[in-house]
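Exercise 7.
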Amino acid sequence: MKRAAIALTAIALLFGCQQQRTSSATSQKTIEVRSELTPEQLGELGAKIRKDPSHAHELLSSHGLDDQSFEKAIRKVTEDPAASKRYAAAYKSAGS
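Solution. The predicted structure, written as tokens, is:
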């Protein structure tokens, strides 16, 4: 849980100053794709962003996400202790 909170904080800092507007069609797609991402997929994505923050927008958009939807998905994961552990394990293994 602590690792997930640290990861969430790091990601929030990465995206805190950036804002991106999306069309309603893109927003709908984001909602659909986001609901399909598992904690493991989110952890791997977070690790990829940490490794190469300059490509964060491309990585997120390839999964149908934007900054805000990614942060919301991670917040949702951190609300569930089991999902949080799965996220942290994936984040750690992908970051190695």
